Amino acid sequence: MRNLGSLFLVILTLFLGCRTPYEPEVPATELRVLVVEGYLDTQGLKSELKLSRTIPLAAKDAFAPEQGAIVVLKNSSGQSFPLTESTPGIYLFEKDIDEQQTYVLEITLTSGERYVSESLLPIVTPAILDAGFKRDEEGVEVFVSTQGTADADDFLWTFEEAWIYRPRIRSPYVYIPAEKEVRTRTAQEQNSLCFKSEVSPGILLETSSRFRDQVVFQKTITEIPKGDERIMERYSILISQKGISSEDVPFWEILKKNTEDIGSIFSPLPSLIGGNIKSLDDANSPVLGQVSLGVIRQQRVYINLEDVSPWNYLNPEFNDCTIGEDAVLAKDYESTFGNGAVVPARPLMVGTSIVGYFPTSKRCTDCTLYASPLKPSFWID
């Protein structure tokens, strides 16, 4: 048995060592399929439609925007509501429209190609009943509760996160090369309070009729592991709840499967995703995507460090961040702080006068190297 086991290990090693990357031969035309993604709010909330092209798996860019398109939403009464391109491939919709009418989305590309959606009936999404978080031994679970209706049984949730990011060492001082002096930073120069943000990467779906009285109770939106950076001080999550039609569910389920199981040979092929967009010029022209209309319900949740303490956040990347034991005197400011890599961290006092500064590395004090110093417009302290 021991010899058989050894032989198996040898064969397994040879097998694994002989594997080569599989690069399927895909026609170039199939790599440029139009992708349409969006859920347009019908009550004036700013919402987005994204137009892009599929790209090879090995491509460096994750998004190939389709720019310069003319995108218009039209209702059954003949009214038109144009979308405006805000950034490449992102088209904004911000209109309060009649939810009793049906609509179609028309897309005309700069190449002249035309696409149209199937008939769209807006869904009045039920309100969010509750949103909050639970703390356990593993970390924090953010949840939402809602109740479906006869017209809104299926739900799609997305979320946007933002959080305060602090450097390992906070220093209020800055060296000014032109003056060869160190002074206290102004409010505009502060680099000890920054903000990071992320948009939800996954797809969260649920059918309310699976539950008693169609109440979806404390659906998990995201989980934050204990010690995660996001709750180093204050964290915010904006949860968006969207009602979708039963006809849209298969699209989102397949997309969810592809997103979560990417790379698996058993995953559904992208060509099977389909959607509710078609070409007006060529019925065989491939297009992927789904556009929906409805009311987007939103609720923001804040979590403070004291709400979940002890949290024990510690980034090992900055374990070497220390303040030097020997102070830098005025005569050495230029040679030490001049190139910006080393910065003044703490003052050396003689009586009531500062005669020098203890140094540290810029990477340990400057949060703007990793995040934005601009406070988000929605942020509440």
Write up this protein.
The structure is a single chain. With 381 residues, this protein is mainly beta. It has a domain of 157 residues. Helices cover 10% and strands 40% of the residues. The chain contains four helices and 24 strands. A hairpin with a 4-residue loop joins strand 4 and strand 5.
The number of distinct helices, counting runs of at least 4 residues, comes to 4
Unreliable residue runs: 1-24, 263-269
Helix content: under 10%
Structural class of the secondary elements?
Answer: mainly beta
Short description:
By secondary structure, the chain is mostly beta strands.
Give the tags.
381 residues; mainly beta; six-stranded mixed sheet; five-stranded antiparallel sheet; 24 strands; elongated; disordered N terminus
Provide the fold topology.
Elements: H1 2-17, E1 34-41, E2 47-53, E3 64-65, E4 70-75, E5 80-82, E6 84-87, E7 90-93, E8 103-108, E9 114-117, E10 128-136, E11 139-147, E12 154-165, E13 173-176, E14 181-184, E15 194-199, E16 204-207, E17 215-225, E18 234-244, H2 249-260, E19 277-279, E20 287-294, E21 296-304, H3 305-308, E22 328-329, H4 333-337, E23 342-350, E24 353-361
Parallel strand pairs: 1-20
Antiparallel strand pairs: 1-2, 2-3, 2-7, 4-5, 4-8, 6-7, 8-9, 9-19, 10-11, 11-17, 12-15, 12-16, 12-18, 13-14, 18-21, 22-24, 23-24
